[in-house]
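A note from the maintainers: we've had questions about how concatenated examples are separated. There is no special marker in the raw files; a new sequence line simply starts the next protein. For clarity in this README we add a label.
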Amino acid sequence: MLATAVTALSACGMSSLTSGIGGGWFGNKKSASPNSEVGSVSEGQLLAAAKSEPGTLASGGGEIAHGCPRVSIWSRDGYVTIYEQGRAGDALAVMHRGEITKTARECNIEPGRVTVRFGFSGRVLLGQKGKTGRVSLPVNVFVADAKRERIVNDKARVEVDVAVDNPIGYFSIVRTVTFNIPEGSRPGEFEVFVGFDRTAPGAG
């Protein structure tokens, strides 16, 4: 399980920001720089980044800064669309859509072990068939080694409030994970992945 403690860590890897899908048919067509930087990892900074217009973040390097494991969005799971029951794939039956648009991380590297404080943020958009209220979407989190074998698995949950007169809700989550590094391996060979759980009811 991933620890949720927010103990301060000495940052030997700067944050990496990435855009999930750049708005798609719910928003504009701009996309954020995949190497944008935000400094330290906090829910407030990630939330502010999620609310910013895609493409307006200051660019920077550090994608594998100091060998800190990267945080990435898994495959196409950076977004998920929830449809009315039995109508998955029907554009006229969209209830809401979740998007992970930003990620960040910093880490503390010790002999044989690394601790990554990471976060992700994004938004939930109300669809044509959506209703006012709280939307809860499951998220998968896992750490993979250089061979893409999962060494740590966990789950998180995005919860936001949306309404017909306020159809966009923003979220940010910060977590901490510690894992061992086998002798002969480097921290930068490992990667933390996040992505929506597409087995959620109505997901498409």
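[label: protein 2]
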Amino acid sequence: MALIIVILVVIVLAILFFVFAFNGAVRLRNRVDSAWSQISVQLQRRHDLIPNLLETVKGYAAHERQTLEAVTAARTNAVQAQQAGPAQQAQAENVLSGALRQLFALSESYPDLKANQNFLSLQEELTSTEDRIAYARQFYNDSVQKYNTKIQTFPTVIVAGMFNFSKREFFEAEQGSTEVPKVQF
């Protein structure tokens, strides 16, 4: 009789272990997915602001076609990269960030543009969106780190392997200089 109770206790503990490990991994995976969707929301907001910003700049800097085309192409690539993984999307977004820095540097050469209320409003909104993107990236990467750690550590690694929990990619920020590029005429 005592042996049966011990066996039942071991079985119940094993079941509880699997349930808690599985639920913990699912909870963290869902947090990663939610964090990724927040990045997507902020990136979409940035993508939606860019055409208005470009139209405002076009009126003042019509001969700066190359910069405007670079921003437009970078935005198009960033929108298309939304279906790719975090690494590809991060790369496309980094190119877009660089193109936007060039656009803002260009505005320094046009005092009338810098004084334009529509441009200033769009620039402020885009800057605010960039801050939100940075926060969303940080939250996503923190969530990925917790999730990856959970599914790679013992004993959860056993459950993660059984139920195909896979490692997630980090959303890597641009490496290198954050200086504003110089625009020369």
